[in-house]
Design brief:
Elements lengths: L2 H6 L12 H19 L5 H9 L5 H9 L55 H14 L5 E2 L11 E2 L12 E5 L3 H7 L37 H5 L4 E8 L2 E9 L17 E3 L1 H7 L5 E3 L12 H5 L14 E2 L2 H11 L8 E12 L4 E13 L9 H31 L4 H26 L5 H25 L3 H5 L1 E4 L4 E4 L1 H16 L26
Antiparallel strand pairs: 1-2, 3-9, 4-5, 6-7, 6-8, 9-10, 11-12
Helix pairs in contact: 2-4, 2-5, 11-12, 11-13, 11-15, 12-13, 13-15
Amino acid sequence: MSLRTVFAEAGRVRRLVGDLPTQEFALLRLLLAVAHDALDGPRDIDHWADLWDDEGCFAPVDAYLAEHRDRLDLLDAQAPFFQVAGLQTGKGEVASLNRIVADVPNGDPFFTSRMPGVERLGFAEAARWVVHAHAFDTSGIKSGVEGDARVKGGKVYPLGVGWAGALGGVFAEGSTLRETLLLNLVAADTGGIRFDSGDRPAWRRDPDGPGVLEGRQPSGVRDLYTWPTRRLRLHFDESGVHGVVLGYGDPLGAHNMHTREPMTAWRRSPAQEKKRGEPVVYLPRDHDPSRAAWRGLASLIAGRTESSQGAEAAPFLRPGVLEWVSRLATEGVLERRFLIRARVIGAVYGTQQSVIDEIVDDRLSMGVVLLHERDRAYGTQAVDAVSDAEGAVTALGDLATDLARAAGAESDGPRGTARDQGFGALDGPYRAWLAGLAEAQDPYLAREEWKHGVRRIVEQLGRQLLETAGEAAWAGRTVPAKQGTQWLNSGLADAWFRARLTKVLGAPQAATPAAGRAAPASDDFLPKVTA
């Protein structure tokens, strides 16, 4: 679909699907920049509500795109889209398209259909990778281009990854692309996010040259979503694109950009505060590929005032787009039971950020009532339910450790394996429970129900650990204790395990189904684990 078709059909399109999840994130930001500029807003929450109620709210985008058609032309001779006309290196080299196609890892092209490399791209796919390069391009040494004062010996030394690559990307996803675009279309009067009156996207600015304008800062989300972190130029013929010139563009520091960038969570950095001599420094909170999104739920739904203590600055800030959705829920523009998916996307870089090692892509379904500022019961119980799972899995890991000690074996491996199995077994049930929490009449009863389900799942995993522990653990042995030594076998390890579960989840009791929603963590979710 073209840009014009995407907006015309946004109510019928489920979502964007790029060549990579990171491409989806980059393209969504491009569409948001178009929407913000074409609609010149939303100015405030009333303007947004009018757009939400109007199925044809994106109708002005068609005329807007026609007006700026020349600057959105990938092949324009004077100002090609997201490129620099006439860009060239001192020796006139043209690089392989592997430089911008991120699913061809340099040196390790084992999991790609493009083996051994990318020789040619169609124009539509090339346009997607151009957008992706500005957002997620790797760091490392790049060829110097003529006219760039940063060139030394024909090269420019590492200046960091593309802007979106520095983020732990987060956005709110609705049931259609139209809903997704609107949910992330933050109003200009939103507290905590700065919008300057002159904010405009790249295609409404003077075309970039090969050099850099030192000291320029984004004027708002339209500017930031289209920030030119690279200078590049595609080489093509009548049948497609066959090469690229790629260099560094405008650098952008991440520290304290929380008032500009709404599509990431933020963490306070004492180390940077000390280094920079500033009282408060926030940096983007990136994603951990080994940790499912639900385990970091607090950073997504805890409000800024809730995560701070008195006058002390908050240790973390939730993403601005979720602050915005919270406002929509709190002011009653969205129904309390309206369901969104908090989508998290990010790149994990390796070897001095010169390669992409992993890509994170996860989503959490939740009712917007979890973000409600004046009714925190649902959000608090959702976060505390994560703590229930963490505590139960810790008890399971302790059981694996104790059984290994009783058998005279190393404990680190069994403990890590047990924890992985525990979180894996609770992943589906928690997601189902969270998605249905908004339907519960009493969030406290819903959490008690969740605890009951956690106990059943983790107890079964514990039984399987005991069954596979072997005769050595059953017989036991003398092990070091806080005061001298003690005899440890599988029977005592089991007793300790059940006591720890009781401390975390309370005494075993029958579940009380929360009215108004289906019971989570049913027996269908119970894992079948083999030794």
